[in-house]
Each structure stands twice: as structure tokens, then as C-alpha cells.
Design brief:
This protein is of the alpha/beta class. It is 37% helix and 23% strand. The protein folds into 3 domains: 217 residues, Rossmann fold; 55 residues, no CATH class; 121 residues, no CATH class. Helix 11 packs antiparallel against helix 12.
Length: 424
């Protein structure tokens, strides 16, 4: 039987059946430093690595043993199954109803791009460091792997930092919620289905979707999910292994549970950035989904202006210069949208393109889509809260499937641009 209606219910979906298993335990312990109180319910579902590790649901209390917080044991689950995530959210809302819901999807992330292969060797564990201490596994080939390298699923980084060339098994294409045991994942199409199903059954939108995962604050991802929540909090860049600082985030919420969803989103950004050093090169931002269509329309206008200008050498030169200088991330094909427009506006003399760039920036700032943006580190100091896909060499065949690409001319612009700069 459910409890009386609280102010907030925070639901954290820990997809830990992979190399992040040890980090999941650490984050649950961070949550326990605060616990459920003052009208704030904290619940979690944790799928641990290995077939012998059962998925458990927790109602997080302050202090004590983690096992004492288990309220339901599900057996082995597949975190990559949309139904498993949907069932968890609906369960959380039924058992711990509240005025506001924050749902956090916790795991690896890859932005919109679900194409590259996520490689993992089952049964081979590296000695992973988290906050200076070993949290899992054994030493693999004498290599001690920084946890930040485990957080990203960039194939380039994963191969270089973790695995040897003898690893032959490629398990699944990459997306956000990876489940090594079930050989499955949640891609962005499925995320939309999950959140659409949940909001239809709840007859309301979620207040905040949290992406405690890498590279997820992209205009393509947000447009895909825009009708399912009011706000989203996530990172343009790869997240370090420690992810969100759940203790400080939840402490702020418990101290003032009357905070609005917009204020909570901003607080998460502040607490996240504060928890890292400048050398970590981190980003985090809160975005307003109600402004996603306005931003998409602005990008559509920019794309059409750029398509018209591609035949002009000065426009092509300005584009190439902007693409060369723009803030990019661990996945080099992801670039900061506002920075791209600022550089284009500066480099071109084309009045239509200049105006279109200003409209895009205005749609992001000035009470636009980006509610709050933060960064720390010189490598990300031109980050403004939301990125966009701008490939250097070729366009992923999956890109055309996204809602954003179907509704805007950005995909057509990318095709034209890459063709125009192609070596003859």
C-alpha cells in the first residue's frame, strides 16, 4: 500500500549489470547519507553485474545497512528492456506518490548515436579506481584503470584505456542503459517509448529526467523526449566515474522540498559542477523541454540558410573555420550548439546566416531552452549547455530516424556540407 503524497519522489534506475557495478553501490551509499525525509522519497532499482546478482528495489533511509532498505527483489532483469524501466517508474509513482517526480537514468551514455560497438569482455575485470580506492575486479594485464575511462562507452577510449586487442566479442550497439548479461540496451527510440508510456499511464509529465550518463544533453535527445517531461539535466561531455554527487543534490532537496522543478534542475547543475576539480573538465546543464520546439525551429532556419549558402566559397570557408574551432567533446562529432552559432556569426558576412545564428542563440538563452549551464576546466570552457551532431567525415545511417532530423533540415545541411568539403 502506498504512502501519503509527498513533495518529491526521486527514482534512480541503476543499470549496473556492466563495469559500473561497484559505482552503483557507492552511489546508493551517497543517497543513504541523506535518506528519505521531509516529504522527499528516494527509491532506486539496482541491477547488479552477473547472473547470480538479483535486481533489487530500495526505499532509501538515512544511515544503516543498505540491505535493510530493500523493499522488493525481482530476480535477474534486463535493464535494456523498456518494460523494466517503465515498470520501475510506475511502481515508484504508485508506492511513493508525490507532487513532483525526478527520474534518473544512471549508466553509460553515448548521446543520440547508438551505432558504435560497445565492447566488453565478460569475466575479465579491471582494477577500477573510484575516489582513490579500488572498487571492483582484479588487475588486468598489470593495468589499473581510472574510473573516468570506464564511464564513457566511446569505442576509441574503451579500447585504448581498458581492453587489449585480443578481445573479440562485441556485444551490443551502444546507447544509454547497457546490460552486459542480457546483451541489450536502451536506445533513444526506446527511451521515448518508455517515457511516453509512463506519462500516458500517469496522465502527467515527469517533472525532471536526469541523465547520470555521458554525452546526453543534445538537442536531438531532448527533442526526442520533449513531450514526456518538463526539464532534463545532463552533460554535454563525458561524465567522470563519480557521476552525480547524490549526497549534496539530495541534501539540498531535503532542506527545501518546496523547490520548483526548475529550481531543483538548477541546483543539480550547481552541486555537480562544485563536486569536481577544474582538471576534470566537466559539464552539466538543465534544459527546459517546453522550449525544444522553438530551438528546433531556429536550427531548421539556420540549416536552410546554410544550405542556400553552401555554393558560396566565403560561406563554406566560414563553416569550415567554425567547425574546426568549435567546442567539441569526447565524441568529436558532438559540438556545442551556441558556440557553433557564435563562431559562424562572427566568421560569415552573410546577413541571413548571421540572423539565423542569433535566433538559435536566443532560443537557448534569454529564458530559452538552457535553464542553467555550468562547466569546469579549460577543455570545455566554450560549453553553453546543449550540443548538436556535426560529423567530421560521414553521417551515421541511424541519424535520419530521429524526430529532430525528420522535423528539421539539419540532416540535409549535413549531407550538403560533407559533400561540399569532400576531397575530389
Amino acid at each position: 500500500m502506498g504512502q501519503e503524497i509527498g513533495k518529491w519522489t526521486v527514482m534512480v534506475y541503476l543499470a549496473g549489470d556492466n563495469d559500473l557495478d561497484g559505482a552503483g553501490v557507492g552511489d546508493l551509499k551517497e543517497m543513504k547519507k541523506v535518506g528519505s525525509k521531509n516529504g522527499v522519497n528516494i527509491v532506486a532499482q539496482f541491477d547488479r553485474a552477473g547472473k547470480d546478482k538479483k535486481t533489487k528495489r530500495y526505499f532509501i533511509r538515512q544511515g544503516g545497512a543498505l540491505d535493510a532498505d530493500v523493499v522488493e527483489t525481482l530476480g535477474e532483469t534486463n535493464t535494456g528492456d523498456p518494460k523494466v524501466l517503465a515498470d520501475f517508474i510506475l511502481w515508484g509513482a504508485e508506492m511513493y506518490p508525490a507532487e513532483h517526480y525526478l527520474v534518473v537514468v544512471w549508466n553509460h551514455g553515448a548521446g543520440w548515436d547508438d551505432e558504435n560497438i560497445y565492447r566488453v569482455a565478460r569475466g575479465i575485470k579491471a582494477d577500477v579506481r573510484r575516489r582513490g580506492r579500488s572498487i571492483s575486479g582484479t588487475n588486468f594485464g598489470g593495468l589499473s584503470v581510472p574510473f573516468t575511462s570506464m564511464r564513457t562507452v566511446s569505442t576509441r577510449r574503451m579500447r585504448r584505456a581498458v581492453f587489449s586487442t585480443s578481445i573479440e566479442k562485441a556485444l551490443t550497439t551502444r546507447a544509454i542503459a547497457f546490460d552486459d548479461d542480457a546483451r541489450d540496451f536502451l536506445d533513444n527510440m526506446e527511451l521515448k517509448k518508455v517515457f511516453s508510456t509512463v506519462t500516458a499511464k500517469l496522465n502527467r509529465k515527469l517533472d525532471i529526467i536526469g541523465m547520470d550518463a555521458c554525452l546526453m544533453n543534445m538537442v536531438e535527445v531532448h527533442y526526442q523526449l520533449k513531450d514526456t517531461a518538463f526539464y532534463c539535466v545532463g552533460s554535454e561531455e563525458v561524465e567522470p566515474g563519480d557521476g552525480w554527487p547524490y549526497d549534496t543534490v539530495l541534501s539540498a532537496l531535503a532542506a527545501k522540498p518546496s523547490m520548483s522543478p526548475r529550481d531543483v534542475s538548477s541546483q543539480i547543475v550547481d552541486k555537480y559542477i562544485k563536486s569536481y576539480k577544474a582538471s576534470d573538465n566537466v559539464t552539466q546543464s538543465a534544459c527546459d523541454f517546453s522550449q525544444a520546439k522553438k530551438t528546433a525551429d531556429a536550427v531548421n532556419g539556420l540549416a536552410k540558410a546554410l544550405i542556400k549558402g553552401l555554393s558560396t566559397p566565403t560561406v563554406k570557408s566560414a563553416l569550415m573555420q567554425a567547425r574546426n574551432q568549435v567546442q567539441s567533446y569526447d565524441t568529436a562529432d558532438y559540438v556545442d550548439l551556441a558556440d557553433l552559432c557564435a563562431l559562424l556569426g562572427l566568421n560569415t558576412t552573410n546577413r541571413e546566416i548571421k540572423t539565423a545564428c542569433a535566433i538559435v542563440i536566443d532560443s537557448l538563452q534569454n529564458n530559452g531552452m538552457v535553464v542553467k549551464s555550468g562547466y569546469k576546466g579549460s577543455a570545455v570552457n566554450n560549453s553553453h549547455g546543449i550540443s548538436i551532431y556535426f560529423p567530421i567525415k560521414k553521417i551515421s545511417p541511424l541519424y535520419a530516424k530521429l524526430d529532430f532530423v525528420k522535423k528539421t533540415a539539419w540532416g540535409s545541411f549535413l549531407k550538403g556540407y560533407l559533400q561540399s568539403v569532400k576531397r575530389r
